[in-house]
Amino acid sequence: MMEKPSADCTAYEIAENLKEIKDSMAEACIKAGRRPEDVMLLGVTKTVPPQRINAAIAAGLRSIGENRVQELLGKKDELTLAGVDVHLIGHLQTNKVSKIVGQVNMIESIDSFRLASAVNQASKKAGIVTDVLVQVNIGREQAKSGVMEENLEALLAEMGTLGSIKVRGLMTIPPIFDTEREKRAVFARMYKLFIDIRGKKIDNVTIGTMPMDVLSMGMSGDYKEAILEGATIIRIGSALFGKR
Question: Total structural domains in the chain?
Answer without folding.
Answer: 1
